[in-house]
Amino acid sequence: MEETVPGTQVVTRFAPSPNGSLHLGHAYSAMIAHDLAAKLNGRFLLRIEDIDGPRSRPELAEAFRADLAWLGLPFVETPPQSTRLDSYRAAAERLRGMGVLYPCSCTRKEVLEAATREGPDGPVYPGTCKGKGMEDVMAAPDGAVAWRLDVAKALAQTGPLSWEDERAGQQIAEPERHGDVVLVRKGLPASYHLAATLDDAADGVTLVTRGLDLFHATHIHRLLQALLDLPVPRWHHHDLLFDEDGTKLAKRRGSAALSDLRGAGVDGHEFVKKLRAGSFPAGISLGRP
Ligand code: GLU
After folding, report:
1. Confidence (pTM)
2. 12 CB under 6 A from ligand 1?
3. What share of the chain is helix, strand, coil (3-state, %, to 5)?
4. Residue 283, pLDDT score
5. pLDDT of residue 252
6. Which of 29, 224, 278, 286 could pair with 239 in a Cys bridge, judged by C-beta atoms 3.0 to 4.6 Å apart?
7. Residue 100 CB–ligand 1 contact under 6 Å
8. Count H helices, E strands: the chain?
């Protein structure tokens, strides 16, 4: 099995998607990534993950930068995902050449109806389009296809894999739990899994820092690294912030936007000091999903 390159400077990252304002949970995540790098004299990167089609709102990226500055978390920004589409296309082409991608025209509804088991992210794709030719697949009404990873075939090429989480320890990679995930979305050059894995490698990230809600995604990312000969980082999946009903804080559920706090004159450095000390606003606590 591959090993992390020893002796390299630690590089962490915060990789928000500009489809809503940052809130307290993001501030916590950014603070953890920043501090893990800072304590080892490393680098803390900001990467804007802006390839979410119409949900991406470019104007939010500027607010994200201002939020981090307000929090007192200095960062180095790497190119946003929208500037990296060629690298995603090239990787998809390479995976197609290896025979581990297949086209799929199923709609979300069809996947939900046909699924027979639950995976970490919901119903697992049952492989409806696996083994079909491009012609059969293109028969879908809108002609658009997604490209899915044939996980069994991919694993047969890589052999067993493992990965290391700083908190949870050594993990055996079990990407099959997810089924054949989408790597190229209909009408977009990459899914989150493909884009984030390529970007972390291109950005030289050595410690992928993110919330526990993405712990399971790492099984897929580890497989992609092996298929594409990418360096293998370590991971740090931190706890998440929950409100009093045990619901994860989310921008869509109306958690206060950092930009509003900033605009209202709240002291961002004090705000982070409290997070660092584990002191959260009333009703908010850390937990596991
Ligand atoms: N862009 C993702 C999000 O905003 C985070 C991806 C990651 O940290 O790997 O949820």
Report:
1. 0.94
2. no
3. 40, 20, 45
4. 87
5. 54
6. 286
7. no
8. 10, 14
pLDDT attached to residue 266: 96
Q: Which parts of the chain sit beneath pLDDT 50?
A: 1-4
* Dist CA 5 CA 45 (whole Å): 19
* pLDDT computed for residue 16 by the predictor: 97
Residue with tokens 């000390």: 277
Q: Which residues contact 209 (CB under 8 A, 6 or more apart)?
A: 12, 13, 14, 29, 32, 33, 36, 235, 236, 238
Query: Which sign does the torsion angle of CA 200, 205, 211, 217 carry?
Result: positive
What does residue 36 show for φ and ψ, rounded to 5 degrees? -65, -40
Pocket test for ligand 1, best of 194, 198, 210 (most atoms within 8 A of CB): 210
196 Cβ below 6 A of ligand 1: yes
Ligand 1 centroid to residue 74 C-alpha, Å: 19
Closest to 80 in 3D by CA, of 125, 121, 49, 119: 49
Residues in the chain, total: 289
In the reported structure, the alpha carbon of residue 20 is separated from the centroid of ligand 1 by a whole-number distance in angstroms of 12
User: Distance, CA 15 to ligand 1 centroid (Å)?
Assistant: 5
**Residues whose CB falls within 8 Å of the CB of residue 182, separated by 6 or more in sequence, listed in order:** 104, 146, 147, 148, 149, 191, 193
- Strand ranges for 152-272 from DSSP E: 162-165, 169-172, 182-184, 207-211, 234-238, 240-242
For residue 3, the model assigns a pLDDT of 46
Contact 49, 195 (CB under 8 A): yes
